[in-house]
Write a structure and sequence with these properties.
single chain; mainly alpha
Length: 80
């Protein structure tokens, strides 16, 4: 079990992403995952791990979206 939680800085970034009409669906999906792991014991599921990994490897996404993806991956299940 991974005991990491989203930091207040990345949680704030995720919150702004969700309320920004200019944010992509991808960024919002990642932001939702980040926020769900802020003050809980939730950890990233396998499908979300794959999605975040894809985002990090793609040249299509900007650094803000990739920072959300990195946070999501850092909270994944250690055994996977």
């Amino acid at each position: 079990m991974n005991k990491k939680k989203s930091s207040s800085k990345i949680a704030s970034h995720a919150s702004k992403t969700l309320t920004d009409n200019q944010s992509s669906a991808t960024a919002k999906k990642l932001a939702g995952s980040v926020l769900s792991q802020t003050k809980s014991k939730n950890q990233t599921g396998a499908k979300m791990e794959e999605f975040a990994s894809f985002v990090l490897q793609s040249k299509k996404y900007n650094s803000d979206t990739k920072s959300l993806a990195g946070s999501v991956l850092s909270q994944s299940n250690k055994e996977r």
